[in-house]
Structure formats: structure tokens, C-alpha cells
Amino acid sequence: MSEQSLLQVKDLSSKINDTEILHGINLEIRKGETHVLMGPNGAGKSTLGYTLMGNPNYEVTGGKIFFEGEDITDISTDKRAKAGMFLSFQNPLEVPGISLGSFIRNAFHEQTGVPVKLLKFKKDLASSMDILTMDHGYADRDLNVGFSGGEKKKAEILQMLMLNPKLAILDETDSGLDVDAVRTVSKGIEEFQKKEDGALLIITHSTKILEALHVDYTHVLVNGTIVKTGGAELVDEINENGFEQFLQ
Amino acid sequence: MSDNKTVVVDVDRSVYDIKDIETEEEFYREKEGFTRDIVEKLSEEKDDPKWMRDLRFRSLELFEKQKNTTWGPDVSDLDLNRISSYVRHKSEMKTDWEDVPEDIKNTFERLGIPEAERKSLAGVGAQYDSELVYHNLKDEVARAGVVYTDMEAAVKGEYADLVEQYFMKVIPPTDHKYAALHGAVWSGGSFVYVPKGVKVEVPLQSYFRLNAAGAGQFEHTLIIVDEGADLHFIEGCSAPKYNVANLHAGAVELVVKKNARLRYSTIENWSKNMYNLNTKRAIVEENGRMEWVSGSFGSHTSYLYPMTILKGDNSQMEYTGITFAGKGQNLDTGAKVVHQGKNTKSVISTKSISKDGGIGTYRSSVVIAASAKNAKASISCDSLMLDSISRSDTVPAMDIRTNDADVGHEAKIGRISDDAIFYLMSRGLSEEDARAMIVSGFANPVSKELPLEYAVEMNNLIKLEMSGNM
Fold it and tell me: Which CATH class is domain A5-94+148-246?
């Protein structure tokens, strides 16, 4: 294992209910790298995201997950977050009674263990919201409650920018967004790439969101197995020819 | 793991649970039970005027005649022959905090009462067992003519006529068995009178502490807010836990005159051996407004339905309440409203949380009388069950005698979704904190109605209740 290795996935299999979805996934992400995971609907892309983050509905049936060299296969989701992992949800949950702003502050405090300096926090929050062209009023609104699809996704990217993880897994962050919103979200991701040297695993089945982003590796997932790994050029290839060539 | 959880609960509850030993030298304690002799003695001790003495005996007769209700939680384990009606410290009530007996002072200091008084209250009353031990009102409020005194003094003082006019008239002893018992053995409580047009900017607070084991607390609160006046009154209650039953059967009578407004906030955190059979009622005159904010966390069994009679035209009431029923608790709470005047309006919104087998029942009654033309009532009650062994019921009754009433009712019962827990945990919150956050968020519409310190206290209580969840 190289010194710079952040995430190492070895022969990972996982199931939900009694159906095995992932069959022996191998993947390594080093610091600062951007990986793209593509594949047709139902390939197991979101399952990989959930399994990496430790969703209790998904049971690991084989293999291991290492983060910065530590075996995290069996640790709880909150500990993975504290270790520096982040998952942007495809369908962010609505939590009434807690504002987006105070939720982020709470999570920030939880992860860093130091009290949040309120003024600086507010300033950072405002500038991150500006990058995402979010109205500042959203910070005072209940977490995701009544947000449009696009605002929910922006709120996820906002959390990523504020929590500054070592590895962010973005699960279909572009789905259901209009062209402008995709561009905005993409700008947020770019900011994360360059400012924080953060690593990314971008799960998507379209390529729009990748246009302005630097990509190091592309993986194609079909039927729970990574069938091909390549560089950024693989994205263009899929863009032209679709997934058909990878389906047996 | 269960050992661990007990430790957490014990440590955190400690501030409420400290039991001060009550010695015979320091405390006078009436023998258990409710008899003619005991009422006689109490009336003598209090030097009641004749009307009060008569009221006590009439109430006792009514108490003896009435039976327990059968529609709510079972109270058959409450043995009234083992409840002492009256316990008091042998010292007199004080108006200087320094003079309050040391042990009692320590208890209230641990509960943060004197600190709250200094910081954010216009006046404070503190009752320990059956009697007020301290009462004080800030000078500027007193100069405006506001009266805030212990109930015993009010019965005989300058406002005796006013007291006689309303005492047990808003809640007559015929109302139910424990209202009758209250009428017979009431002791302590506060009297507040806010003169016409006086707006009291900062809240008044009474804190009721029942420290004695196997005793009853029967404090009587009477508040009269005169025409165009405005008051926020806060009531707090707590008791340490004992293995024997304790009883709280207080009465709160509120009179909101023309164009006046009264807000009555309660955080009730009785210990889990308490039977809380409390009665609260307000009469609202023309264009007056009554606001209730109510948090019920403690007690073994509660029957609590603050009632508002919208007597005057254009009068309004708003009730915001939350109930948290944990292990071994059966909390039957809600609100009642009677619309009598024209264009009257009521809003009831409640939240109920149950966990570890606790039972939370929302029960309400909305009556729109034939005289209440163009009345408007809206009810919304949300319940959250934290596990599959807990129970949540909704029993809303409506009796509408007009054909132009606008009545809305909305009820939701839910559970915490695993997906929401996972979502919050993916941001670094522990499972316990994630649950607590969802529950606090659920309670937030109520906590934001409370003064800040009480909102904090309520959130702490929720966290404390939740910490036993893992």
C-alpha cells in the first residue's frame, strides 16, 4: 500500500436483504485524486457508496475497506465520518426543527471536537453559499425541508465544503438537476478539489457534471463488478458509445 | 449496556433527585389520609375566613362522593390513605433569599431559581412541599400596582374580595374528584393581579418543589389580568424520586379580562412516582388572548388538559404543548376549549413522544356553543414513537353547535426513520445524538415558544430522556 493511499477496497462484496449486489470490488483512491464511477442503472453504484459509508441496511459479505490504512469495515458510520469520509446523498433526508446552518455547525463541532468560532463560521458559510449561488436564507431553514431537488443537492455540496472531508463520495449529485444547477454544483466540487486537495469518488451515470472537472480515473461498474478502469478519456468514450460495450 | 444506561440517567437527573432529609425538628408533617379532622386542622392553622372554611368542607364532601374516572389511565394504585396532605418547614415565608433555610435554599439554588430571578424574571415565588418559602417582586413591577403574593396572604389581604369572587369558581369543586380534593386541602400557591393597562415586560415565575415522600402538593394559583393588561407567567415543577406514590393536585385559575393577554408557560418535570392530577382553566373575556405553553416530561401518571373558556366576543386562545412519555409513564394530556363568544378563535398544536413502553395519549375537547357565531378552531397533533413497544393515541372530541364554524383537525403519527439516522450519522453524529437531534427538532416548535433558559432545560430533558435509549 502506498503512503498516499486514502481508501483501499479489497474484494468487497455486500448485500441488502438477501440479495448480493456487489461482488468483489477492488478500488484504491489516493489523496487528492478524483475517481468517477459510472455504470448503467441497477449496477450497484449507490450500493457501493452506502457500503463504503456503513449504511446498516447493507451487509458486507466479504472483503475489507481500509481508510488511511485502518480497517474500517466494521466501524459505525459516524466514526467513518470523523475519520474524514463524506457521502453526498442522492435523496437527502428532511429533518424538521433543525436549521441547515446549525446542523452544519453541530456536525463540524462533532467532527473536530473544538468549539466553533461563530463569526468565522458564519463568514465561511456565507462564502461557500455564494459559490453555490444559494440564498443565505437557506441557512436558517429546516434541513432540506421543502427544499427543491436542486437546493437539496446544493445543500449537500455546501456540507461537503464546510466539513472538508478527506474523501467525498458524491452519489448521483447531478441527477434531477437542470443545466445551470449542474454547472453550479460542479463549481462547488471544483472548489473542493483545488482548495482542499480533497479526494472524490463521483458516482454518476451522466457525464455533464464532469465537463469542467479534472478526472484521474474512471471505473465502469456493471452487475456489481468493476469491468473496466481507465483515465479521463473513458468518460468521453462512454459519452459517445454508452455502456453497451461493457454489457455481456 | 443496561448498567451503563442506568448510570447516565442517575448522574444527569441528580439535580432534581437530591433528597433533603426532612427531620421532625425542622418539618411539620400532617398524618396520612384526607379526613374531616385533617381539613379542620388545616383550616384552623391557616386561619381561614368563613367562606374558605365552608368551601373546604363542601369540597371534602364532594370528594368523598365522587369516583375516579374510568376513561383515562388507571389510578387505582394511588392509595390516598398513604398521602400526607400537608408538610411544611417550621420557618416563616421569606422575602429575602438569604433568610430562607439553608437546606431549602440549596435545593432551589441547584435548580437555578435564584439565578434565573436575577437574570430574567420580574418576580419569583418558591414553594417547598405545602408552603411558599420565598416570594419576591421587583420594585418597579410592584410600583406599577402588580400584586404577586402567596395565596394565603391573598385570601386575607387587600384583594380578598377579588379572591373570593374567583377562587374555585373558574374550577368548581364539582368538576371532578381531585378538584374537590384540592378545594378541601389546598395550601400554598400564588396570587397575581395585574391592574388595568399594565404590561409586565418580564415574566413572573413560581417554582413548585415537592420534596417530602408520600405527600401531596395542592397549591392554588389564581391570576387575574385586568383590562388591557399583559403578563407572562412561568410555572416550574420538580420532585426527587421515591418508591412511594406522591400526588400533585393543584389548581390554576386564570382570568383574562377585556383586551388583556396572558401567557402561561409550564415545564413540568415531576419524578416518576408522581400522580399528576392537575387542573388548569382560563376564562377569557372580550378580545382577550390566552396563550398556553406546556411541557410535560415527568410523573408516573398524568391527567392534564388545560381548558380555556372563550367567553367574550373576539377572544382567542393558543395552546402549544409537548409530552414525553418514557418507561413506566402513562401521560394523558391535551387541551379543552369552549367557544362561547362570537368570532372566537382557538389553535391547539401538540407534540407527543413516547419511548421504552411509555404511553402518550393526546386527548382534547373542542366545544363550539350555539352562541359562538363564526368561530374558528384548528387542532394539530403529531406523535413520534421511538420504538415498537411504546404507544401513542389520539382522542380528539368535538361538539359543534353552530353551522358556520371553521374547524380543522390534523393528526400525524410517525417513527424515526433509519434513513434519517444514517444521514445524520454520515455527518459525524453518534446514533444517540442523531436520535436526540431528530427528537429535539420534532419538539422545536414548542421549545421556541419557551423563554430561552426553559428551552435549554427542555432540550436537556430530551437529551436526558434519550440517553437511556441506547
Answer: alpha beta
